[in-house]
Design brief:
single chain; eight-stranded antiparallel beta sheet; seven-stranded antiparallel beta sheet; 4 helices; mainly beta
Length: about 325
């Protein structure tokens, strides 16, 4: 059953067990970018200055940006200059009808374009907005249309929560999501929030208890990276796979250099399946799939983040 934005915002508010922290959310638009502020302080921006849209920065309750700074900020001397397509919080995939929307390899311009960013509002302590997007190659007719919805809240003074749902619809013919590890809903974290690197201080783990390299490719409900943020404050950054999301529990393309990516399509890569098309999914013309994820930024420990409790609340959402 399709749930309208006010009902989703109310459901998120009801799912928060602790008293919600007082937030003074507001929106501002500048140069095609939608900014979300709290008491005048920038929390995040929905940006369309790249071939796929993304959120950057993402401000933890401590005031630190928990996302990789480069390439969004050119003056980032201590930041590794790898994977320029890893930008903030984003959603794309490396094989859609054979085209690479993830890294942009090949001789085709595979990009996710914005039709409109609309519906921004604050209701019941939840800030929300929508993005009407389309996936296109060389500016041709859309392979996919996408309805992406964002809901941002503060369950308590130490936590920022972002719920993102993406409805992808095949509009002009069948669409094949190909089996590849390169995808799909991702975060690239800051230097200290990594397992590997000069400033790395994190331990990657998941809901199964698997850690670091052992967590790569595994199916789990969440993988977090607890570590000090750039201000030296303890923080937990996690993505939770919603039980109603496609192929829950998803596989995780989780790397030691700060990439956390939910990928429901990479079965061949992750499970070392001999069938290179094991993870393929064919979306018939007019059909849709839903991808739904919750991002938690918690200033505190893995225990105080209560990720299992949050995931149970996702399971019980109306």
């Amino acid at each position: 059953m399709k749930m309208h934005a006010p009902r989703i915002a109310a459901a998120i508010a009801l799912a928060i067990s602790a008293p919600a922290a007082k937030a003074e959310f507001s929106f501002a638009r500048t140069d095609g970018t939608l900014q979300l502020l709290d008491g005048g302080k920038l929390i995040t921006s929905f940006r369309t200055d790249y071939r796929v849209p993304y959120l950057y920065p993402l401000t933890a309750p401590s005031g630190a940006n928990i996302l990789r700074h480069w390439p969004m900020e050119k003056d980032a001397p201590s930041e590794e200059k790898d994977h320029p397509h890893h930008r903030g919080v984003w959603l794309s995939h490396g094989n859609v009808n054979g085209y690479d929307f993830w890294a942009g390899t090949g001789n085709k311009d595979a990009s996710i374009k914005e039709k409109s960013i609309y519906g921004e509002k604050v209701e019941n302590g939840v800030a929300s907005f929508n993005a009407d997007l389309y996936w296109s190659v060389d500016g041709a007719a859309a392979i996919l249309t996408e309805d992406r919805r964002h809901f941002i809240s503060r369950p308590d003074a130490d936590t920022l929560r972002i719920d993102i749902s993406s409805r992808l619809t095949a509009r002009n013919g069948d669409v094949v999501f190909g089996d590849t590890k390169e995808g799909t809903f991702a975060i690239r974290t800051d230097r200290t929030l990594r397992v590997k690197g000069k400033e790395a201080k994190a331990t990657l783990t998941n809901s199964n208890g698997e850690t670091d390299l052992d967590a790569w490719g595994k199916r789990a409900t969440w993988p977090p990276t607890p570590a000090p943020d750039e201000l030296g404050k303890p923080v937990v950054v996690a993505i939770l796979d919603d039980p109603s999301s496609f192929r829950h529990p998803t596989h995780w393309h989780a790397r030691d250099y700060g990439l956390l990516a939910a990928n429901p399509f990479g079965i061949h890569d992750f499970e070392k399946n001999k069938d290179k098309k094991a993870g393929n999914h064919v979306l018939k013309k007019g059909e849709s799939i839903m991808l739904k994820y919750t991002v938690i930024i918690h200033s505190g420990s893995l225990e105080s983040a209560k990720l299992d409790e949050i995931h149970r609340s996702l399971s019980s959402k109306p």
